[in-house]
Design brief:
The complex is a heterodimer. By secondary structure, chain A is an all-alpha fold. Chain A has 13 helices and one strand; from the N terminus they run αααααααβαααααα. In chain A, helix 12 packs antiparallel against helix 13. The radius of gyration of chain A is 21 Å and the shape is elongated. The N and C termini of chain A lie far apart (62 Å). Chain B is an all-alpha fold. Chain B is globular. The termini of chain B are far apart. The chains are: A mainly alpha, B mainly alpha. The interface between A and B is large, with 83 and 119 residues. Strand 1 of chain A pairs antiparallel with strand 1 of chain B.
Amino acid sequence: MNELPTDVDRLLHAERGSVPPAPAGARERVLARLSSTLGGSASLPLPLLPAAAPVAAAAGLSSAAKWGLALLLGGGLPLVSYLALRPAPAPVTLAPSATSAPAAAAVAVRAPLAPAPAATALVAAPATSASMAPPAAPAAPVLIVPPRDRRVRNDGPAASGQGDDSLAAERGLLEAARAALALGNTTEALALCRRHQHRFAAGQLTEERESIAVRALVSAGQTAAAQTRADDFRRRFPRSMFLPAVDAVLQ
Amino acid sequence: MLRVVGSDKVTEAPASTQSPPVDKAVGATPLPGPGPRPADASREPISDDEFGAIYQAQFDYVFYSLRRLGAHDGDIEDLSHDVFVALYRGRGDYDRARPIRPWLFGIAFRVASDYRRRARHRSEVAGEGREFADLGPDAEGRLSAAEDRALVREGLLALDLDRRAIFLMHDIDGHPMPEIAAALAVPLNTAYSRLRLAREQFARVVRRKRPRREAP
């Protein structure tokens, strides 16, 4: 195996030294979106952003208001999408979005194919190693995720016959719906869900849409409709990772 | 409930003038289990608590890895989100006997590959956006370091993604080749071959560009 020439290798020293921190706020913004993608419980955003929690709690805000505050403080993309979409009556124009959660899901997390003959050299860390359990940060964000179900979706673009642009549009609509729900605008959230259903009858984010719709119905006080929709959701997606959130919101 | 309790702290890579030792890689520590466990528990799914800890401890690494893989700065948050979604959905596939970073990089690589397949993202821009790193205490040093980083970035962008990923993982992150091959799901010999070609190409590119940069 050829080695890198010394003069070239020297260039890499700075790269090897450390991992530069991500831009300010990126961690929180991504966490907020992850909570939305993986979670869905109405109480989720309250502890999500450390700065939002005490303020919201002290103010005695409603769950929806806490959602909004958390998103506002987090600079959440969904809020931006919502505000951008809100006045648009017709086809939705979305900020370009490079990827989507389902697209990521379609990226299989494959089991290693190659054997790992040298792995034993790396297994020396004891189970009590603190590397993954460092001292708790004082204002550590909390992320609630469904406790089970890691089903790998197979309803990718090939299955749906829709391309990346459609996927991005789907995601934008639903992010706007989530943001509307977070701000307590259940009418708008349900309208956006309906718009998604109309435009993407066989869309890739159907589970996400239905889970948002159930939550919106509950928030709107339409418990019976929410129950009916949740029953339908359970029948159609019995292993959905959104199911715990759907169940929780009806309890 | 998932409590994020990680730390931002990143272990420093071993100082070396050549490629880092393969058995002292940055982030090479395997994920510890929840406690004493039988030998066959290495496939126990990552718990929610662990997922949160991984997010907190490895977010910067994922973010920067995506950037080094050629993602545009404006897209990296989207892609980071996708990496962690894929991690969560595939958390049962993680082998606890393996270090976490190569596995995360493997996911980032697949997300970045998917991203690059879209025509509109194929054009990569060297030096796009700001540098996130602390470049050093003095102005001259900062300038020199910035130039070195820009040169490295140009060299990296000249490599195709398959080679770049292995080069990054081995010659910069310092992961051992068997871990790299496993994380990227390629045969070990293929990984070595790609590394050899990547090194040759990287050296060629940076040497070609460096005199031009140093000219008045």
